Amino acid sequence: MLAIDPLLLALVAATFLIAGMVKGVIGMGLPTVSLALLTATVGLPSAMALLLAPTIVTNVWQALVGGYLTAILRRLWVFLLASVVTVWLGVTILARVEVRWLSALLGVLIAFYALSGLLRLEIGRVVSRGRHAEAVNGGLTGLLTGMTGSSVFPGVAYLQALDLPRDMLIQAMGVLFVVTTTALGLAMGGQRLLSAELVGLSLAAVVPALVGMQLGQRLRRRLSEATFRRVFLSGLLAMGGYLLLRSLLG
What we know:
With 250 residues, this protein is mostly helical.
C-alpha cells in the first residue's frame, strides 16, 4: 500500500500542476505527463490510480461541449465500445504480470508518441487502414490503457487520421479519455488495485490539475504553441527513455 506523507502530497500536487499546465497550453497531455512523472516515483499501478479523477474531471467538459457529441457517438461507437471492453482485459494483465515489464511498455509508448510528434510521422495513416480499423484500434487502445494507463496510442493517432474538423477532433479526444479512464477506474476497483487512500489522493489532485490548466491557458497567449510542443515532446522522449531503461535495468 502506498504510504501517504507530506513529500508524496507535494509530489502529486506538483505533478498535476505541471500536467494541467501542459493540457492548458496544447489541449492534451495530462494523463501522459502525470503517468511519466509518477511511474518513476510511485510505480505504475499507483500512478494509474492517481490519474483517474484528474483525467476524468479535466476531460468531461471537453467531451460534452462543442456540439458534436451525437455525431461522435454515431461515427465512433464501435471504436469507443471496443476501447471500453478491452480495458478490462488490460487491467487483468496488469494484476498478473510483473509490473516492471508494463512500466517498460509505458516507456516505449511515451517515447514512440514523442518521436512521432517530433519527426511528424504520419502513423495515423497506417493505423487507420483496413476494413476493421475502428474495432482494431479501439481494442488495442483499451488494452494498452488497461495495461499502462495511457490511451494515446493508437487512439489519438487514429482519431487524428479521420480528418475530423478541429473542434470535433478535440471533443472526440475528450470523449475517448473520459470513457477509457472511467472504465480503467472500474476495472482497477474490480481487481482490488484501488485503495481508499489512492482514491482520496486522486480526488485531491483535481485541484492542482485545474489550477495548472488555468495557468496553461494564460501561458498559451504568450508562448508559441509550436515551440512549447517541441519542448513538451522532447521532455516526454527523455522520460519515456528513462522509464524503459529503469525497468530493464531494475
